[in-house]
Structure formats: structure tokens, C-alpha cells
């Protein structure tokens, strides 16, 4: 019952609203431009029965999940260090301030030159975008700890490790996971961009290939796949946040 109330019902209502808007637009526009939602949905369910769709879905999932893991694993400890150490923050803040506003996708040609056309360069770009968000959110979360809370832990004779474990980590985790969850949609958007060229597998490639062939039903199969992947990443991050931060 809780699952239905929290996940199934909101998604069902959203799908119904999108369907109605899409249906009206399909009636007003030519079917050559926008297919009927029934045709696109039927094509999607047919694609779910094929190994080709799951091959592209698995390739995109691997890139997105690997990038999220690498981005979080690097940025989260750095965020704690910057939030808890003035010296470390003073050293690293200028670099973050200067590079954070740069749209990371513009670095794709440089990353491709350095790391080639394979999966690694695509994962690096997604990791950079996610990593900065996690880094800034985690640093701000640690900075937001009230000094009295840390003083109370120190007054009990806590070591540096205990101060980290009992003070900084509980304050940083919710911010790190929230940044990861909020940016799961961003990772899917960037995934489409990096998969739209220099590859022959992935949902982004599937969308662009179908678009080039004017096969709009197949194009929406890829779009639905991207939406499904985004939901899985978002709910997965939400689940990790809940089991890692039961106090939040």
C-alpha cells in the first residue's frame, strides 16, 4: 500500500497527464510529425521483448551508473575535507570557483582527444558534471554544522576519526545523496548528448539513429527508455539515501 501511494499512483497520474497532452497535440499536428501515443507505446512494449533494446539500455545504464559512482566517490570526500578544513578549502576553493561555472559538456572534444572515443571519455564527462554538484552540496552541508554540535563532541574527548564519524559524516551524507538524486536527471540528459555521436550503442544512439531514418515510433522507444532509466536512477538514489540516512 505504501509503494502504491508513494510511487505507483504519482507516476500513473503523470503518465495519464502526458498521454492526454500528447493525444491533443497528435490530433492538432500531422501524424508524420508526432505519432499517436498509442502507436509509440505499443512500439515501446514490443521493443521491451527484443534483445536489441536491452543491449542499448544496458550500455546506457553502465555509463550512467559508473559515472555516478565515480563522481560521488571522488567528490563526496573532497566536499567533507573542504567543509571541515579551512586550509584545504582555502587551497581548493579558487580551483572550484573558477571551473564550476564552465559547462562541462564543452570539454567533450578535449576529453575525447585525451581518452579516445570509448566509454571512458563519456563516463568522465558525466562524472565531472555530477561530481561538482555533489562536491558543492557536501561542502555546504558540512559548513552548515552548528559549532556547538562539534564542540559537544570534542568535549567528550573524541578523536579526529570520531569527530568525522559522529559529526561531519552524518551532516554531509544527506546533502551528498540529495545532490546525486537531483542530478540523476542531468546525467541522463548528458548521456543522450555523449551517446549521440562516436558510438553505435546506447539509448542516445538509438534515438538519433531512428530520427535520422524518420522512424518516429522507434525514436520514442529510445526516449521512453531514457525516461525509464532516469526513473530507475532517481529511485535508486532515493533508496540509497533512505537506507544510508535513516535520521534524515
UniProtKB/TrEMBL annotation:
Protein name: ABC-type transporter, permease protein (Nitrate/sulfonate/bicarbonate transporter)
InterPro entries for this protein: MetI-like, MetI-like_sf
Top-level taxonomic group: Bacteria
Keyword set includes Cell membrane: yes
Coiled coil: none
Gene Ontology CC: one annotated term: plasma membrane
Organism: Desulforapulum autotrophicum (strain ATCC 43914 / DSM 3382 / VKM B-1955 / HRM2) (Desulfobacterium autotrophicum)
Membrane-spanning parts: 7-29, 62-83, 95-117, 123-142, 186-207, 214-233
Protein keywords: Cell membrane, Membrane, Transmembrane, Transmembrane helix, Transport
UniProt topology in membrane: Multi-pass membrane protein
Family, as annotated: Belongs to the binding-protein-dependent transport system permease family.
Matching Gene3D superfamilies: MetI-like
CDD domains, A to Z: TM_PBP2
Location of the protein in the cell: Cell membrane
Domain ABC transmembrane type-1 stretches: 57-241
Keyword Repeat listed: no
GO biological process annotation, one example: transmembrane transport
Amino acid at each position: 500500500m505504501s509503494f502504491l501511494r508513494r510511487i505507483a499512483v504519482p507516476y500513473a497520474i503523470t503518465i495519464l497527464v502526458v498521454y492526454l497532452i500528447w493525444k491533443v497535440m497528435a490530433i492538432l499536428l500531422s501524424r508524420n510529425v508526432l505519432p499517436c501515443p498509442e502507436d509509440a507505446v505499443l512500439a515501446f512494449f514490443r521493443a521491451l521483448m527484443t534483445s536489441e533494446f536491452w543491449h542499448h539500455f544496458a550500455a546506457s545504464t553502465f555509463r550512467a551508473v559508473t559515472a555516478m559512482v565515480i563522481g560521488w566517490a571522488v567528490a563526496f570526500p573532497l566536499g567533507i575535507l573542504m567543509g571541515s578544513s579551512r586550509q584545504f578549502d582555502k587551497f581548493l576553493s579558487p580551483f572550484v570557483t573558477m571551473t564550476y561555472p564552465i559547462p562541462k559538456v564543452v570539454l567533450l572534444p578535449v576529453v575525447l582527444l585525451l581518452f579516445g572515443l570509448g566509454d571512458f571519455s563519456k563516463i568522465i564527462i558525466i562524472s565531472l558534471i555530477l561530481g561538482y554538484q555533489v562536491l558543492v552540496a557536501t561542502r555546504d552541508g558540512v559548513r552548515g554544522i552548528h559549532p556547538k554540535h562539534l564542540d559537544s563532541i570534542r568535549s567528550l574527548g573524541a578523536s579526529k576519526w570520531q569527530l568525522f564519524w559522529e559529526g561531519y559524516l552524518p551532516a554531509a551524507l544527506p546533502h551528498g545523496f540529495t545532490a546525486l538524486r537531483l542530478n540523476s536527471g542531468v546525467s541522463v540528459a548528458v548521456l543522450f548528448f555523449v551517446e549521440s555521436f562516436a558510438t553505435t550503442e546506447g539509448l542516445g544512439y538509438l534515438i538519433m539513429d531512428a530520427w535520422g531514418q524518420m522512424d518516429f515510433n522507434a525514436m520514442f522507444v529510445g526516449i521512453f527508455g531514457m525516461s525509464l532509466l532516469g526513473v530507475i536512477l532517481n529511485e535508486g538514489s532515493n533508496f540509497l539515501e533512505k537506507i544510508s540516512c535513516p535520521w534524515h
